[in-house]
């Protein structure tokens, strides 16, 4: 998992995805999932896991993309950011 600033992650996704990058993908899980849906059409397997199940105060999300024996993951307290990190890592390879 690469280290990104919010700005560098957003710039990378916009550069690589172009018009396919939903406007609020980094803030809205529904928009972030639109990216993974497209990737699933291209053969990627996507999983989003709540690592803090049962907690009423903590959140911790792990998004994973797998294809051809390679796995890319992102983890954050914001589900959309976890997804975007996994997508960025998968795109960069």
- The assigned structural class equals alpha+beta
Task: Outline the low-pLDDT stretches.
Answer: none
What is the straight-line distance between the termini? 10 Å
Shape: globular
Helix content: 40-55%
Rg calculated over all Cα atoms: 12 Å
What percent of residues are in strands? Answer: 15-25%
Count of individual beta strands: 3
Order of helices and strands: HHEEEH
Main sheet strand line-up: 1-2-3
Q: How many helical elements?
A: 3
Q: What profile does the largest beta sheet have? A: 3 strands, antiparallel
In round numbers, the mean pLDDT is 96
Ordered list of secondary-structure elements with their pairings:
Blueprint: H1 6-17, H2 29-41, E1 45-50, E2 61-67, E3 70-76, H3 79-92
Helix pairs in contact: 1-3, 2-3
What does this structure look like?
42% of the residues lie in helices and 22% in strands. The protein contains three helices and three strands. The chain has a three-stranded antiparallel β-sheet. Strand 2 and strand 3 form a beta hairpin. Helix 1 packs across helix 3 and helix 2 packs parallel to helix 3. The chain is globular and about 35 Å long.
């Amino acid at each position: 998992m690469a280290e990104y600033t919010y700005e560098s992650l957003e710039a990378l996704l916009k550069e690589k995805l172009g018009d396919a990058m939903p406007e609020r993908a980094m803030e809205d899980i529904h928009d972030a999932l639109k990216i993974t849906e497209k990737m699933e059409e291209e053969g990627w397997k996507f999983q989003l896991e709540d690592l803090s199940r049962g907690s009423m105060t903590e959140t911790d999300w792990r998004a994973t993309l797998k294809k051809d024996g390679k796995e890319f993951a992102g983890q954050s307290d914001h589900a959309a950011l976890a997804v975007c990190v996994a997508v960025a890592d998968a795109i960069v390879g």
